[in-house]
């Protein structure tokens, strides 16, 4: 009897608390909706409310927050501003060029500082882009440095630890120019026309190919879980070895015995199960699980080994809360090598990927949010493209790759986000994360690798839209996807796909051209006959 009475009293208490909270929430929503802020963001017009927008913004942030550490880790693989001058050398000796590819205390210390710079740069560019999207375009979309362009910059342009065709400074200059060009074509309204110049099968295959490329990166030892490594006979093979060559990643023994690989695999399964159950922030949970275990020292999976570099990283990590100021990557432009062909190929590739990715994502998100009108456009479209391009310019100035609208914005749309307040909330969440740089810069590669593989899985969805029954479309699409991971180049995949598409359709183009020439010839002959007939009549009249 007493238990039932207590239960009844308890239930009544929680019911009263729930009603009070509902009344408080309703009052808050009504107040904000009728305020200048609510009217500016059109809360009532779009049938939304303040608290719903906050929940939507938080949901989107949780699903895309992985980019903070993932983007910094990928671009840090380029070496950033680190060079041979940062390498440690024995007394009375000078460092050699291979010090950047071998374990070196000085160079690793520089890389750690660069990664912290890139974490801040990623957060600031995402914060500025998201807030600008909300305030200017009034759309509930989150922005951050895009997956794909970051890998292209790190591994194709600059190369692993600076072994590519151009320097980090030149690559940032390319990103800056690309952002300016994208801003210009968006301002003049020719963005959509440019996107349509690329054959549709190549456009679709481009996203899938980039996904395969990113997944391949996530499987390697230096950038991911270490499942795939080099082999002198077959080029690549399965590794996950207990002992590897620190310079090449080649297996030295203990294949499939790497504890870091198995820990990363556990994180991958956590992410998969979360996505299967449609749990918000599933990408984050896998990363967090692996990272927390890797923070313990004295284990085989620690990210803080008992080395001078490990001690320095651990001491910085123990600060937990710290505001890190960008030291090396901001404003690191160089236009001195812009007369090389590689620069212009890189510029065209980044522009192409940016135009297609932004166009496709924005329209998809606008359709999901119910913003698209009968003419196929949506409110805020023009400003949305300008914000995207402007954010890329800001990102290049901070030292990171082009900014893109994230498909993870769909999480916020599902929560009911319909105005720019959602995007502003996303930006504010990024701002809060600025004060936890010691934690965010201590995420290991084997925690990042599973999320890269999962990004590849998500990007493969577009292959269902390719017409595999038509070989003129299937072959170029397949070659585009195949070349990107196998040549380790997004640009080569695009060039190969477009070239093959043109070659396979050359006969059709020639037939159309010949028909047009024959038609023009008939018109010329007809016109000539009419002129001749008129001249003959005039001559006859003169004779008469």
User: How many distinct folded domains?
Assistant: 1
The tally of beta strands, per DSSP, is 6
Structural class: mainly alpha
Spatial extent as radius of gyration: 28 Å
Outline the low-pLDDT stretches.
1-9
Helical amount:
55-70%
Major sheet description: 2 strands, antiparallel
Organism: Prunus avium
Membrane topology: Multi-pass membrane protein
GO molecular function, one term: purine nucleobase transmembrane transporter activity
Protein name: Adenine/guanine permease AZG2
Structural commentary:
With about 550 residues, the chain is mainly α. The chain has one domain (about 45-85, about 100-520). About 65% of the residues lie in helices and about 5% in strands. It is built from 21 helices and 6 strands. The chain has helices at about 1-35, 35-40, 50-65, 65-75, 105-135, 150-160, 170-185, 190-195, 200-220, 260-275, 280-295, 310-315, 340-370, 380-400, 410-415, 420-435, 435-440, 445-460, 470-485, 490-505, 505-544, and strands spanning about 145, 230, 235-240, 245, 250-255, 405. The strands form 3 sheets. It has a two-stranded antiparallel sheet. A hairpin with a 6-residue loop joins strand 4 and strand 5. Helix 3 crosses helix 16, helix 9 runs parallel beside helix 19 and helix 19 (about 470-485) runs antiparallel to helix 20. The longest helix has about 40 residues, at about 505-544. The chain is globular.
